[in-house]
């Protein structure tokens, strides 16, 4: 029973009949980006499947190191495409599960991922759970109370809805990873689904999301430090720098050396405390409400229709971890537990997001600012503790967030530099410095933490976490799906487009309105 891979996407049995296997043909030469899987592995803090293939790499210091991709791995030295399932792999499926037919073997292989070698040195269930929560429980926790204030109490239903939807699409993404033994990252899924354009589009969206989150870190630092030191303004003749602008620039200067680093293992462990920091912020807000006299006396409003689109974007931002999930999945010792890890991650993070949203809205009502730390009374010591906990983590996460973008751009450096480590490091350092400067310019131009987060959530997070997983899943498995499943995935796809288009429009409109009314930004006179 030998299976051969054909361009018609079918598998030929020994009796001459065909069985469709959900794998799209991938053609061409190795495509940009080749560094995505390696740079995402740092979030899993373990040897993933991608890391094993890329053994021998020293951190992520060389963007030109050859890496495994669906395109490269599927072609041998003679340019002949390998079978999707080798003979030995198909027998392993039968022996492990005791199935008798080729159809069952293909189905189990495609959906269970049993053709992937077991990662004995990988992450345990609880390590993977911690890594997943560290990805999801980020700066979004500061703005869920603001989202509740913008949308009203009923908008919290959307928080739960996005948790369910994004958890389901993460499971769809895992099935796409299992559809082919050479798929290890999100861009690989795009390439398997839609060829080179699928890989490029998904990669660009993922890098834009990371770039935008790095900008949010700078705005967060500037706002919270300005809250602690409100009289830190500086003027140079006719140029006046507000406190938040000064601290944005100062934070970027302090973070710049970490972006130059080529080995980020130390920073990865520091940033792994992000879930602890988020938990401490929730506890501190509860402490201030219960023990420091603020109380939970604001009734709030049931629904704000005018603020609902912004709330949708903020809630969507909270669950934008799909870029890292393939790395966490690949790093697991027992990948069959990944779905359980996802469900528990989303459940725990939703309790954290919902808890701080309810407490914050009950404490401050419609007066909530974009970050709840800005509403905490300054005379209370616990408020200072919450702010400093908020400030510390982005210093590690900024470099880890921006480095994948930098390494991907370094791939465009002239390949004549590929043999010169000194040239690569020099021009790479210049590129990374310019990248940091660009984030500072954007942060100073659009210094609205909540509204920018709403735009990221509506345009980028909804695309990466809802639209693209659904599109790829339908493309890869379209010949095996039942009508009800196609209907469900299609409905989620439509919902993703509605959130993406509607939320992006209203968040951009709100940003433009605020630029004109507040005079914020680098060019306040031109809005």
TrEMBL record:
Database matches in Pfam families: Aa_trans
Residue ranges of domain Amino acid transporter transmembrane in the record: 122-506
Biased composition annotated in UniProt, kind: Polar residues: 64-78
GO molecular function, one term: amino acid transmembrane transporter activity
Keyword entries, A-Z: Amino-acid transport, Membrane, Transmembrane, Transmembrane helix, Transport
GO CC annotation terms, alphabetical: membrane; organelle membrane
Region Disordered: start-end pairs: 1-21, 53-79
Record membrane topology: Multi-pass membrane protein
Segments crossing the lipid bilayer: 125-147, 153-173, 200-220, 240-260, 267-290, 310-329, 341-365, 385-409, 430-449, 455-474, 486-508
InterPro entries per UniProt: AA_transpt_TM (IPR013057)
Lineage top rank: taxon: Eukaryota
Residue spans of biased composition, Basic and acidic residues class: 1-14
Main location: membrane
Alphabetical GO biological process terms: amino acid transmembrane transport
Annotated compartments: Membrane
Family: Belongs to the amino acid/polyamine transporter 2 family. Amino acid/auxin permease (AAAP) (TC 2.A.18.5) subfamily.
Protein name as catalogued: Amino acid transporter transmembrane domain-containing protein
Organism in which the protein naturally occurs: Physcomitrium patens
UniProt lineage: Eukaryota, Viridiplantae, Streptophyta, Embryophyta, Bryophyta
Underlying gene: LOC112287960
């Amino acid at each position: 029973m030998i299976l051969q891979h054909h361009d018609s996407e079918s598998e030929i049995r020994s009796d001459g009949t065909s069985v469709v296997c959900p794998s799209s043909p991938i053609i061409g030469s190795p495509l940009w980006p080749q560094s995505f899987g390696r740079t995402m592995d740092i979030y899993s803090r373990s040897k993933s499947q991608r890391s094993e293939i890329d053994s021998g790499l020293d951190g992520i210091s060389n963007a030109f190191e050859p890496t495994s991709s669906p395109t490269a791995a599927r072609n041998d030295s003679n340019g002949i495409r390998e079978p999707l399932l080798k003979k030995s792999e198909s027998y392993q499926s039968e022996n492990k599960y005791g199935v008798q037919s080729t159809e069952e073997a293909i189905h189990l292989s495609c959906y269970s991922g049993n053709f992937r070698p077991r990662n004995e040195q990988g992450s345990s269930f609880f390590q993977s759970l911690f890594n997943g929560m560290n990805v999801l429980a980020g700066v979004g926790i500061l703005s869920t109370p603001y989202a509740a204030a913008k949308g009203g109490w009923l908008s919290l239903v959307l928080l739960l809805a996005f948790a369910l939807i994004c958890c389901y699409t993460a499971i769809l993404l895992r099935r796409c990873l299992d559809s082919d033994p050479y798929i290890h990252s999100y861009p690989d899924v795009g390439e398997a689904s839609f060829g080179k354009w699928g890989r490029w589009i998904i990669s660009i969206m993922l890098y834009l999301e990371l770039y935008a989150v790095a900008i949010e870190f700078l705005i967060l630092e500037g706002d919270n430090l300005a809250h602690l030191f409100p009289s830190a303004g500086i003027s140079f003749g006719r140029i006046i720098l507000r406190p938040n602008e000064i601290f944005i620039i100062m934070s970027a200067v302090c973070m710049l050396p970490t972006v130059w680093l080529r080995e980020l293992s130390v920073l990865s462990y520091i940033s792994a405390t992000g879930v602890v920091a988020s938990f401490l912020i929730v506890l501190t807000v509860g402490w201030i409400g219960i023990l420091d006299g603020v109380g939970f006396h604001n009734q709030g409003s049931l629904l704000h229709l005018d603020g609902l689109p912004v709330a949708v974007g903020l809630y969507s931002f909270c669950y934008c971890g799909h870029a890292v999930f393939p790395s966490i999945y690949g790093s697991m010792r027992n990948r069959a537990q990944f779905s359980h890890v996802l469900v528990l991650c989303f459940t725990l993070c939703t309790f954290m997001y919902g808890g701080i949203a309810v407490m914050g809205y009950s404490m401050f009502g419609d007066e909530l600012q974009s970050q709840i730390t800005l509403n905490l009374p300054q005379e209370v010591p616990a408020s200072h503790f919450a702010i400093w906990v908020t400030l510390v983590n982005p210093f590690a996460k900024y470099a880890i967030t921006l480095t994948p973008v930098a390494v991907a751009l370094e791939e465009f450096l002239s390949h004549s530099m590929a043999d010169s480590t000194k040239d690569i490091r020099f021009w790479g350092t210049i590129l990374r410095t310019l990248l940091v400067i660009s984030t500072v310019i954007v942060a100073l131009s659009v210094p609205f933490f909540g509204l920018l987060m709403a735009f990221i959530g509506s345009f980028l997070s909804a695309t990466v976490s809802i639209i693209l997983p659904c599109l790829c899943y339908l493309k890869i498995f379209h010949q095996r799906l039942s009508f009800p499943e196609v209907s469900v995935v299609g409905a989620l796809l439509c919902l993703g487009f509605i959130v993406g288009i509607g939320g992006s429009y209203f968040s951009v409109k709100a940003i433009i309105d605020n630029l004109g009314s507040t005079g914020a930004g680098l060019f306040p006179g031109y809005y």
